């Protein structure tokens, strides 16, 4: 059974860099067609796509957040890491990692709530 | 990349059907058959309901049906059941090789 789990700090101070880790099992990010994605959701608001890393290590970012985001993968540990710099209170929300098999998000983690506050 | 446009809310009675629309542009919904739909219950992670416009993953009831015409995709849920009450999001691949979500639609089963 495919599982994904996000981990990271629940509270971040403004201007800090957020580092989130997604640890997954029962599949490999080296398999063709597999992509890993980060999505976030502010409280009570819609989903927002953030970044993606593909099986061949291609990386893509949200246009509006591109300068603040870095996605990376460690295939030996079955992990994907997202870094977001210069955190602001508007970045508060639940951050999800999800597996994308070809063109849809077929498995999601439970999400991690990140609050940005001083 | 602007979000796809969905109605904020729709409703229906048990046993009836309802349709949620998702409007984009020729650079996303209209240009590719990579539209997917997600169901999200309160406090839960989204769940894939439809992929590649009109395909259902294993385990999703055939009451859920996806379609597309031009720049607008639609999710139709027939024979509404109480457990269908949730938020629904559409998503599409875009010409910029990034993804975009809709603003979400709250389905209320009356």
What does this 3D model show about the protein?
The complex is a heterodimer of chains A (118) and B (110). Chain A contains no helices and eleven strands. With 118 residues, chain A is an all-beta fold. Chain B contains no helices and nine strands. In chain B, strands 1, 3, 4, 7, 8 and 9 form a six-stranded mixed β-sheet that branches. In chain B, strands 2-6-5 form a three-stranded antiparallel β-sheet, with no helix packed on it. In chain B, a hairpin with a 5-residue loop joins strand 7 (86-93) and strand 8. Chain B has strands at 9-12, 18-23, 35-40, 47-50, 64-69, 72-77, 86-93, 99-101, 105-109. Chain B starts with 8 loop residues before the first strand and ends with a strand.
- Quote the beta fraction of chain B: 35-45%
Spatial separation of the terminal alpha carbons of chain A? 39 Å
Termini Cα gap of chain B: 35 Å
Number of helices of chain B: 0
Shape of chain A, please?
globular
Radius of gyration of chain B: 13 Å
What is the overall shape of chain B?
A: globular
**SSE order of chain B, as H and E?**
EEEEEEEEE
Helix content of chain A: under 10%
Structural class of chain A: mainly beta
Instruction: Estimate percent helicity of chain B.
Output: under 10%
- Largest sheet geometry of chain A: 7 strands, mixed
Structure annotation, total helices of chain A: 0
Compute the CA-based radius of gyration of chain A.
13 Å
Helix and strand pattern of chain A: EEEEEEEEEEE
By oligomeric state, this entry counts as: heterodimer
Notable traits:
heterodimer; A: 118 residues; mainly beta; seven-stranded mixed β-sheet; four-stranded antiparallel β-sheet; 11 strands; globular; B: 110 residues; six-stranded mixed β-sheet; three-stranded antiparallel β-sheet; 9 strands
